[in-house]
């Protein structure tokens, strides 16, 4: 026996079917993706992140995000045009680190502010260095075998 709201829902579904609103839906006639795989509790968040193209770094706790940003800092600074831009970028990052240090949340991870002068010095060095394209690497020559005297010395040392 159906209740009043169930009957209303069934009536709406039936009318939508008659209008053809369920015809030619995307994925119609195709198998359900992931049906043969074992159940995963986080399937919905993974599919959402793939569909919306959200980077997985955003799922990390704040200290790990900050630490990753500090580690990737040289690569991010390399493309900045001026020293003032580098200093302001590092200042913003340091402000976020200090804000987290004042009210830490999440796991206890060591995160320290970045030395601005060191970042600028490294930025200058990276800008002076020419961009090296990937060139074929020649294999290293085979290592020379140790001479007989070295072998004897090793043997004597182990023998003692």
What is the gist of this entry?
The protein is an all-alpha fold. The protein has helices spanning 4-19, 43-52, 62-71, 73-77, 83-102, 116-128, 148-159.
Explain this structure to me?
With 160 residues, the protein is mainly α. Helix content is 54%, strand content 0%. It has 7 helices and no strands. The longest helix has 20 residues, at 83-102. It is elongated, with a radius of gyration of 31 Å.
Strand content: under 5%
Shape summary: elongated
Structural class: mainly alpha
**Spatial gap, N to C terminus:** 95 Å
What descriptors fit this protein?
160 residues; mainly alpha; 7 helices; 0% strand
Topology of helices and strands:
Layout: H1 4-19, H2 43-52, H3 62-71, H4 73-77, H5 83-102, H6 116-128, H7 148-159
